[in-house]
Every structure is written in C-alpha cells, then in structure tokens.
Amino acid sequence: MKIQTVGVVGAGVMGRGVAQALAQTGHQVILVDLSDAILANAKTEIKANIRVYNLFAKEKLALGANEILSNITFSTDYGRLAEADFVVENATEKWEIKQPIYQQLDAICAKAVILAVNTSAIPITRIAGLTKRPTQVLGMHFMNPVPLKPMVEVIRAYHTSAETLAQANELLRQMGKEGIVVNDSSGFVTNRVMMLTVNEAIFLLQEQVAQAADIDRLFEQCFGHKMGPLATADLIGLDTVLLSIEVLYENFKESKYRPCPLLQKMVDAGLYGRKSGQGFFSYTK
After folding, report:
1. Is 159 part of the annotated catalytic residue set?
2. CATH assignment at residue 247
C-alpha cells in the first residue's frame, strides 16, 4: 500500500531534503518547524535545489518545481502531523531537543504511525524508549543531499518490528531509494567510520601535516572518493559533525572519538561549511 502523507519534522538541510525527495515522488508532505521564517527559507531552498537536481540527476523530474512545492504543506503546527501516515524526524543532534519532540509525536500521531529518526549518531533504542510505540520506531539515516543519494541506512532498534522495517523499506522504494538494514549502535555503520575519518583529517590539518586541499585530493585521487573528508565535513556542516562526534564520545567513552580542538574552534567561530559560506574551504560567491 502506498504511503500517501508523510510528516517531516525539521526544515533544516536534512529535513528539507527529505521533504523534497518525498514531494518529487508524488507524496503529500507536512513539513513542520518552529517559525514561519525557517519555513519560508526552506521553501526557497527547496525550489533552488529542484533546479540543481535536474542538472545533476541521471533522470529529470517528471514534476515541475511548482507542482513539487504544491505537494508540501509548510506549518508551525505540530497538530497537522495527526494527518500523517508516516513521520520522519530531522531535528538537531541534541538529546534535549529530540526528547520533547518524540513526546509530542507520540501524543499527536495515530497509533499505527511509524516514527523514523533521521539521526547521525543518537541510538534509536534510546529514542524509542520515549514513546508508547517502541515497535514502530526505527532509524532512517538519509545522506546529504537527500534527493540525489540512492541509499539509506535503516536502523533496527531493540524493539523495532519486522512490519515496521517492511513499511519503511516500502516508503524508500516509493522514493526510488534502497535501504540497508543495520542494528542499533551509536553512529551505526556510516557515521561510526566517517566521523572518525573526518575528525582524524582535521587533526592532520591542525598538526600541519598537510593543507586542506591536499588532504582531500589524496582521498579523491588515491581512493577514488568523489569528495574528500574535509569537503564532506563542510557539506554536512561542521556544527553537525561536532555534535555527532560528541554523541559517539558520550556513548562509547573511548578517546578515539575525542573531537579535534580545531573543529571546536571553527564551530565557535561560526565557520560551519557550505551553509555559512566558509569552512575548510570557501563557498562565498
């Protein structure tokens, strides 16, 4: 059965990417965030990103930009999520922010609705424990930019049912994506490896072993990576990278996850990467 209406919580980089990917495959989307200003910015960014998608995707979109945007309802009212058949949450990687969201979702959403956590590192079982529907909570770790990435990391929490996994994978199929199911562990597979790589690359830069461009070129030319670890960090957002590494450090209590001081310094300075115009590389026009 086709999932028709999907609630998307959070209109940041990941949330608007998920909303766009759903809307352009014919789903009705309810995109919820805290303010009209955030939502207006999300609408502008989604419109721009639709043009980018058509430039880089192998297949052009069947729907036009206005038709895609018409599939998205932008709202500050969490109560609208009562209309959703499925919900994907994309809030900031902070427990104190996610915790009240799930308490709201559990109260508002219909009992049969699945709650999917789009997180980089927070254990899904911990989030499921906030709800009265732990069998219907799972992780769906989308990659950025969401509309262009064909693969999604699907995380099975302790109580996640087989039916929940099947419905989540069916939604991904409807979006033209494939899910790979992994078991719950902070950082899962992708970010447990990637964040260590990014963090170590930042240590190399801090220790002046090599310049940023050369570090990335080595990964691109020697290993065939499309993007080096520092450019990847800029794309993710250095603030998000720092939060993810801090979550890994908190959960594993191992020194290898200690955030590089240079990363902390750059975040303190507001150098977040692409979204701020400056990170390890410059993105100003």
Report:
1. no
2. 1.10.1040.50
